[in-house]
Design goal:
Signal recognition particle alu RNA binding heterodimer, srp9/1; Rossmann fold; Helicase, Ruva Protein, domain 3; 5 domains; 6-stranded mixed sheet; 4-stranded mixed sheet; 13 strands; elongated
């Protein structure tokens, strides 16, 4: 038992902690600061003044000295360097009261010739070139001329000048590169996370990125237990590039890696390598990898790597030296320089993979590119559940409905919505956050701040109401359009007088009919203004911009025009400095004509639709003028259900999946029962000869019915 208990005690990593503490103490030992040299110079300067002050005791004026010589008070003098005079008083000066005996020496017997009687000595400064020898000779004053070299003062002056020069240079370096010493300018600025660091972010805090998490978990697992992979012949990947739109969670995923990995984690930004001095970025890259190799196995994370990883230029000026390219070259060499078994993995994040250099993206450097897209409906629901945990919620708050109302939102935007909802609830003095607060927060994030006090004339408000009602009616009666979920005429943002929210289908492929219906719905506002008022306004600016881009894409990109044909003028590798069109002027004229035809036909169709549904348009506009906000449920009450069997996108999102599946199953069961009854009926007539024909017909019927049932099942599941 004693042996068993002693075994786990040996597993305690006390020496490692001790070594870590020693290393930390070594790292924390302060170096001699730069300002210490300044203190030394000040001390020397004070010593000089003190030294001079000792010699300047009993100083008298030069005019007084001449008078005292003529009166016979001066015994002897010494002239130093032709300027300084040191002398001694006579007994006459003592008896006449020119010099007073100190109280300490009054009670003592003193000798005038003694060297200790400093009160009898004086000092003055004479005029250069002044001939005082006749005065001295006339009064029997002994004098001596000496020349002394004050080497200390000269050396001290030079030391002060050198010290000031060094201090000025250090000050300039600190101004240009704050926090760095003169000799540490090539050191990297990475932040080290290890076992002792309190990193609270883990993989549990990340939702909606399951595929990316699996990729990153594999990298962390390799560092923890490499034998699991190496025994099968696998090699550790050198690097992984996290690619995704802003706010999708790239940096958050890296933080989770730092929290989960039990290995050192170096984190820094791409801009940390960039400096105004030549060669600093490359030196910092080398220093970073040197530290990483010493602490291997470890992970290096470079955020926003496009700051140093941009494509290198081709035709540069002779003699030019791009510091960013030198840094990139050093990074390429270091990534391809260490062996695969060194245990150093590089993680990098960027939202601009198109600008990165091809040498950086090749296999052997960044072996993997982990795509982090914007979350779908299920991903948004999971992200909402994560961000709703710290909030005090009402029981009616449904993450499923919130995810349905936020299509295209990234993780950062969802976090912003949750925070805004909590702030709105606190502003309203509520005890908990409810759905009204979340809806207000979504409107705040999408449309901007609500302008309740903005003065709008009744004519403008009426125009905005009919404009938004035109969008709602057009989307309600167009099969492939996405009906509006919410329509508001409350001003928001800087210039938006109306606000409409709709849920687009999360699909990757769009057909021509779908795009055309969306164009018609977008033109519903402009068409409603022309039908009702006979005039048009400037409120359709964003609508016109959208349909123009959509029409040009249909003609010149997607090949959806008969006259242009199956031709796409889109170049995925084009740069921003390409001023040449990939088509002729004649083709450009044809494209413009076809785009105008598409927009005109969509506008005519929208006008015709709204003219037929003029009554519904009036009803919705009046309702908007009264309530200012209309939801999709209000549309069903006011103008009836959509004349299509398909559910709207919002209904699909908010409907429980279980209920839909049960309805489909029940319908399939009933249809199968009916088919079974039909098949079993002919079996009673066994005597009839055409058995086979009847059986074959029944089989054909069943197969056709089964096909129809399966087709209906697929349609319902697709819906």
């Amino acid at each position: 038992m004693a042996d068993k208990k002693s075994a786990p005690k040996k597993k305690i990593k006390a020496p490692e902690k001790g070594s870590d503490s020693k290393n930390k103490n070594k790292a924390k030992t302060p170096k001699f600061p730069t300002w210490g040299f300044l203190v030394i110079f000040l001390v020397l300067l004070m010593a000089q003044f003190i030294y001079s002050g000792v010699q300047i005791s009993n100083y008298i004026k030069y005019s007084v000295f001449l008078e005292q010589v003529e009166n016979g008070y001066v015994d002897e003098i010494v002239i130093k360097n032709g300027s300084y005079i040191e002398g001694k008083y006579t007994e006459k000066a003592l008896s006449d009261g020119i010099v007073k005996v100190p109280e300490q020496e009054q009670n003592q017997n003193f000798n005038l010739s003694g060297d200790d009687n400093t009160f009898l000595k004086f000092r003055t400064t004479m005029l250069r070139g002044d001939d005082i020898r006749p005065v001295l000779d006339a009064n029997d004053v002994e004098y001596e001329i000496t020349i002394e070299e004050d080497w200390f003062s000269g050396v001290f002056v030079w030391l002060i000048m050198i010290g000031l020069a060094i201090g000025f240079w250090v000050l300039i370096l600190r101004r240009m590169n704050p926090g760095q010493q003169v000799l540490n300018i090539g050191k990297n600025k990475s932040t080290l996370y290890d076992k002792q660091t309190d990193t609270k972010t883990t993989f549990k805090d990340i939702a909606g990125l399951e595929e990316a998490k699996e990729e990153v978990k594999e990298i962390v697992d390799f560092l923890k237990s490499p034998d699991k992979y190496t025994k099968l012949g696998g090699k550790i990947p050198k690097g992984a590039l996290l690619v995704g739109a802003p706010g999708t969670g790239k940096t958050l995923l890296a933080k989770a890696v730092a929290g989960e990995a039990e290995v050192p984690f170096f984190s820094l930004s791409g801009s940390d390598f960039v400096e105004m001095f030549v060669g600093v970025g490359a030196a910092r890259v080398r220093d970073l990898f040197k530290q990483a190799k010493e602490k291997a196995p470890c992970i290096i994370f470079i955020d926003e790597i496009d700051a140093i990883g941009r494509t290198r230029g081709k035709g540069q000026m002779p003699g030019s030296n791009d510091e960013r390219e030198n840094t990139l070259n050093s990074l390429l060499v270091e990534m391809d320089g260490f062996a695969t078994d060194s245990g150093v993995i590089i993680l990098a994040a960027t939202n601009r993979p198109d600008v990165l250099d091809n040498a950086l993206l090749r296999a052997g450097r960044f072996d993997r590119q982990i795509s982090i897209d914007k979350p779908d409906k299920n991903g948004r629901e999971a992200i909402f559940k994560v961000h709703l945990k710290p909030l005090k919620l009402n029981s009616k708050v449904d993450p499923k409905k919130l995810s349905a109302q936020t299509p295209g939102f990234a993780g950062a935007e969802i976090a912003n919505v949750c925070n805004e909802a909590a702030l709105i609830a606190a502003r309203r003095d509520k005890k908990s956050v409810d759905m009204d607060d979340f809806e207000a927060a979504i409107d705040r994030v999408i449309g901007g701040l609500e302008k309740k006090n903005k003065i709008i004339s009744p004519e403008e408000k009426k125009i905005v109401a009919y404009h938004e009602a035109g969008h709602a009616v057009a989307g309600w009666y167009l099969e492939h359009a996405n009906p509006l979920v919410k329509v508001s005429i409350v001003p928001r943002g800087l210039a938006a007088l109306g606000y409409a929210q709709y849920l687009p289908k999360e699909q990757f492929l769009h057909q021509t009919e779908q795009l055309f219906d969306e164009m018609c719905m977008t033109l519903g506002g402009r068409a409603a203004e022309e039908i009702i008022f006979g005039k048009i306004s400037t409120g359709a600016l964003s609508d016109l911009e959208r349909i123009t881009k959509m029409a040009y894409s249909m003609v010149s990109v997607y090949g959806m025009n008969d006259k242009i044909g199956n031709v796409s003028f889109y170049d995925s590798k084009q740069n921003d400095y390409n001023f040449q069109k990939p088509y002729s002027d004649a083709t450009a004229q044809i494209i413009d004509e076809e785009v105008k035809k598409i927009i005109d036909s969509a506008y005519d169709r929208t006008k015709e639709l709204l003219s037929d549904k003029l009554n519904e348009l009036e009803i919705l506009a009046k309702e908007l003028l009264e309530k200012e906000i209309i939801y999709q449920s209000d549309l069903e009450k006011l103008i009836g259900k959509r004349p299509f069997n398909t559910q709207t996108t919002y209904e699909e999102y908010t409907a429980p999946d279980a209920e839909v599946k049960e309805e489909v199953k029940e319908e399939v069961k009933e249809e199968v029962k009916e088919e079974v009854k039909k098949i079993t009926k002919p079996k009673k007539d066994d005597s009839e000869k055409p058995k086979k024909n009847g059986q074959s017909k029944s089989k054909e019927q069943t197969s056709e019915k089964d096909k129809s049932v399966n087709q209906e099942e697929n349609d319902k599941s697709g819906e």
